[in-house]
Each structure stands twice: as C-alpha cells, then as structure tokens.
Amino acid sequence: MTPAARVSGAIDLLAALADQPRRPADAIAHDFFRARRYIGGGDRRAVSDLAWGAVREHARLVWWLRRSGVEPTPRLMVLAHLVLIERRAPGAIFSGERYAPAALTAAETAVAEALRGQDLLHPAMPLAARLNLPEWALPGLEERFGDALPREAEALSGTAPLDLRVNLLKGTRDTALAALAGEGILAEPAPFSPWGLRIAGRQPISSAKAYQSGLIEVQDEGSQLIAAVTGAKPGMRVADLCAGAGGKTLALAMTMANKGRITACDVSAPRLSGAARRFARAGVDNAETHLLEHGDRWAKRRAQQFDRVLVDAPCTGTGTWRRNPDARHRMGAEDLRELAAKQHEILAIGAELVKPGGLLVYATCSLLPEEDERQVDNFLAAHPAFSVLPLASAWEQAGLPGAPPGEGPYLVMTPARHGTDGFFAAVMRRG
Ligand SMILES: C[S@@+](CC[C@H](N)C(=O)[O-])C[C@H]1O[C@@H](n2cnc3c(N)ncnc32)[C@H](O)[C@@H]1O
C-alpha cells in the first residue's frame, strides 16, 4: 500500500469504529481486516497504528477540531492526527488519486492550516482534554490520584508491555524463560508476580511453542496478583463468579495445584466456552463452568459452601485504557452508574457463597473509587459478618514472596507506579 492508501485504510477503520460505538475496537478491527485480506501484515500494522493513534489522542484531537469550528469525523480525526502529531503535510496524502483519500475541501484545508505548527497541548485546553481523559471519569481519577494524576494519565495513554503468566502445572519460570529464549523471545521476570514474565515490544507469542503447549498464558501482572491474593490452595472449593474467558480461573487452578474444585461462572456462554478450551490447553482438570441464567438457583443452593469466592466484577475498565484506548469514549457516566449497581448485586451473591472463615475477593480493572473502595464500604456496611483482610496479611497468608505492592488495605495497581494495568482488589473474610 502507498502511504496515502494506508491513511485511507485508517479513515475507513475509524469509520467502522464510529458505526459501532458500543462494540470494543479490537473486535471491530478484527472483522475489518478479515474482510480485507488483501491488506498484508506491514500495511495492517501501519493502518492500525494510525487509527489507534487517533483513538488514543481522541480528547485532544476533538478539542482542536472543535476549536477550528468543525465537528470530528473519522477523516478529520486522521487529518488532525497527521498534522498535529505526525507533523505531516496533508496535501500530498489527501490527493484524491487512486487508493488515496479524496482531495481536501477548502474547509478542510483551512482546518489543516489552523492546526499546522501547533503544539498538541494548548493553554486553553480544559484539564480532561489536556490529560487525555474523558470528562465522566475525571472526578474519580482525581480522587484516586490527586497530584499524581498527570503522571498516571500519561501512563494510561501509553502502550502496555506484554505480560505472561507461567503455568506451574506445566513447568517453572526458568523453563518458560528458556523455552521462549529458544524461540528468540526475550522475557524477564515481572517485578511482583512470582509467576510473571514481561516482554517489551511486540512479539508473536501465540505462535510460540511455550504458548501452544500451555506453559505460558497472556495475563497482565496485576490480574495475576488478584488471583494470587485470593489465596486458593490445593483441596479448596472455589467459586470464580465472573470468570469470563477464565483468565483468573486458570491462575487459581494453578495455585491449587489442580486439586480441589473451582466453579467458573459467568452470564456469557461464549466466554465460558472459551474458558473451557483454555482449561484443556493449560492442563487444568479441577475446573468446571456454570452459566448463570435469569432466576438461577445455583448460588442459593450453595450458600456458605466455598473457601474462596472471587468476584472479578464487570466494570468500566478505566485501568485498561493502555490496551483498550477506545473504552475511554465507549463508556460514559450512565455506564458507570449501571455497572456500580451491578457490582453491588454480584458482590451480595458472592457473599452468600462464602463459608465461615472463608475469603471473598472483590476485584475490578477500574481505578474509580466508586467502583472500588466505595463498593467495599457499602458492602461491609450491609454485611457485618465480613471484615477486610489487609493486603499485607492476605499476601502473607497466600504464601507470596517478598512484600506486596503498596501499604494500604487493598491491592491497587496502577500503570505509572507498577507498570501494570490499573487493578483494584479487596480481600474480605467471613467471621
Ligand atoms: C472483568 S470480566 C471477567 C474477566 C475474567 N475474570 C478474567 O480474568 O479473564 C467480568 C465478567 O463478568 C461477567 N458478568 C456480567 N454480569 C454478570 C453477572 N450478573 N454475574 C456473573 N458474571 C457477570 C461478564 O460477562 C464478564 O465476563
């Protein structure tokens, strides 16, 4: 593809995202490229990089376009990205020639002129756009980070490393490192997770033998630590109530050395089917799946039967913006309200399942206190049988090495402080 054709591709990809505003961008991109198999690997990366660049800088580019008197469209977003960020002259790209985007109109040329030579950050930009954050999440993130917000916002706008979890059911961290090195993939131990590896840059991990054999799983280190502090041990009865495609179930099965029983529940049948396939690849044979349906009595019939219950709740995903930059603008204040209500409900169901002396772990991949500490406060106020097991104690009781990341009562992982996605987890014990 010519450079101009790549720009055309990026405009088309952004238009596909705009047509399906509630759908995750990676799923849309997957379909987009599948329908255009003629776009080869290098071109695909170039098209994606340009489109994701515009998605990542959404708030700032929109501010600039509106200041120039136009409403953002996919074409204008790409134009603004090229001029403001890549500092390219758009005239030669928007040429109207074969495969290139249509020639700039007079109004678009005026916008490009207005943006030319400008710094991306402007003194008149409001805080949300300056920090590249959506307005709806700003109050919560200010509350979470205070003075550290600019640093964390910058980290949330960055790219994420590739984190792997070594599957101790299949080998050790050293055997995994050696297996990866044998295929030219250089990894290093992750700082906190005893089973974590980190890889900088892009690596074709899914074709690696270590991955195909189930020796490694792709999992952010923060996510690994949520499973770790759950402290699931061999022989226990464990419920993973929002198991999705089973990322944390797999890690729980590993800390249980495949002994005892885990039930992985979810309301999504396709996700649970994905989980079952992953169990097989990872050599996990102590996990079953259960699809939660409307009016399901599964939880009622198992009151107080579980040693560990993990509620990895559906959330706004503010902690995952490095990997899902589109989620900033796909979610809004109304989603936050709805999800907070749902989290409250699921947590109450999870609580019923916990045995006396057992642990309930509430986790999100959001950094908003409304989905995190405030959920825990509300829960504890309504469930006096439960109390917080502080992170340091949960860490020690789970037999994890070294000190936990942070001194507060909860596990709070952030991109700037820990190099992970943003995660929250509270461990609570039923007395
Ligand atoms: C954060 S994701 C789980 C990720 C998963 N635990 C992992 O580690 O890969 C949240 C999950 O909650 C599920 N969910 C939504 N509403 C639910 C409900 N009422 N009960 C149980 N699960 C629910 C969603 O389908 C989604 O898979």
Automatic annotation (TrEMBL):
Instruction: Cite the Pfam families for this sequence.
Output: Methyltr_RsmB-F, RsmF-B_ferredox
The record lists S-adenosyl-L-methionine as bound by D266, D312
Which ranges carry the SAM-dependent MTase RsmB/NOP-type domain? 152-431
Q: What is this protein called?
A: RsmB/NOP family class I SAM-dependent RNA methyltransferase
Instruction: Read off the PANTHER family from this record.
Output: NOP2 YEAST -RELATED NOL1/NOP2/FMU SUN DOMAIN-CONTAINING, RIBOSOMAL RNA SMALL SUBUNIT METHYLTRANSFERASE B-RELATED
Q: Where are the transmembrane segments?
A: none
Note the PROSITE patterns from the entry: NOL1_NOP2_SUN (PS01153), SAM_MT_RSMB_NOP (PS51686)
Q: Which GO terms describe its biological process?
A: RNA methylation
So where's the catalytic machinery, residue-wise? C365
Write the record's keywords in alphabetical order, separated by commas.
Answer: Methyltransferase, RNA-binding, S-adenosyl-L-methionine, Transferase
In its UniProt record, a GO molecular function of this protein is: RNA binding
Superkingdom of this protein's organism: Bacteria
Q: Does the keyword Disulfide bond apply?
A: no
Q: Which family does it belong to?
A: Belongs to the class I-like SAM-binding methyltransferase superfamily. RsmB/NOP family.
